[in-house]
Amino acid sequence: MRRRELIVFGAGAALAAPLAAYAQVSAPKRRLGVLMNLPESDAEGRRRIDALLKALAGLGWNDGKNLDVTYRWGVSGEAIRKNAAELVALAPDIILANAPPSVEALQQLTHTLPIVFVAVTDPVALGIVQSVARPGGNASGFSPSEIDISGKWLELLKEISPTVKHVAVFRELSNPGALQQINVITAAASSVGVELSYIGVRDRTAIDRDVGAFTAAGDGGLIVLRTSEDIAARHEIIAAAAHYRLPAIFPLRFCVTDGGLASYGPDIVEEYRQAADYIDRIFRGEKPGNLPVQQSTKFELVVNLKTAKQLGLTMPPTLLATADEVIE
Known about the structure:
Layout: H1 3-26, E1 30-36, H2 43-58, E2 67-73, H3 77-90, E3 94-98, H4 100-107, E4 115-118, E5 139-143, H5 149-160, E6 166-171, H6 176-192, E7 195-200, H7 207-214, E8 220-224, H8 228-232, H9 234-243, E9 248-250, H10 253-257, E10 262-265, H11 268-283, E11 294-295, E12 300-304, H12 305-311, H13 317-322, E13 325-327
Parallel strand pairs: 1-2, 1-3, 3-4, 4-5, 5-11, 6-7, 6-8, 8-9, 9-10, 12-13
Antiparallel strand pairs: 10-12
Helix pairs in contact: 2-11, 3-4, 5-6, 7-9
């Protein structure tokens, strides 16, 4: 290379280097808001967030480097609405929202800020999206299942304990997802020959007392819905079920690893991993309304034999043979 060409090349490189460095430094970070419907201290909530952050890192988004993540945690409807308003006011690029109350609170505040949701059963029926294939609007995400899975919990309870005649369902009436699930369970109750009653979860200190009152009817069993309020109260429900020796069916695996008897449902942590892909695509210019809602296709049956023994229950061999996981 001639000396003049070398000088020109060197000068150009010297000019390009600062420009590249400037572009790298000045590129704005992406901002992600996360609206959680669990307490910040909840281990399951942290597990979901860890899965999300790891998946985002795999796509090149690292919290504290080219990504800023802001969290809001809370279970009650009042807390969720307050947290939603705070996140919308911060105007992040995207908000990730867990469960119907969180998404609905956000959509009441904004029709433009992109929302990626997880753990929203039947978002079309709830009016969160226009259709599964073409959500429209500003939201799309991941749905655990069709609502009909709720009836499976009642069938599972009868299979484990055929003598059950009275079933108490834990619920929080302000949660629209609870009403959906209760409607399906109510429709299935007559076919399996059980009577339903309900126990509130807003006051967790009253759960043991209310379960104790329910046991007076005899031949009892419990069903825990897939709602934020029920999940947040799982430890009190597990303790009450053990105290009164009642079989209880839960909607998610981690409830059984925490000491519950059995669960049937999807893996919500996996939805958080998958949500990272939609967040990445929206960061890169895609519209949430053009991203189809993804629905779970795999559901896990998990059984805790240690809990069954403590309750004096013998699990049917056919059930154990079909279980995806048996905890001993």
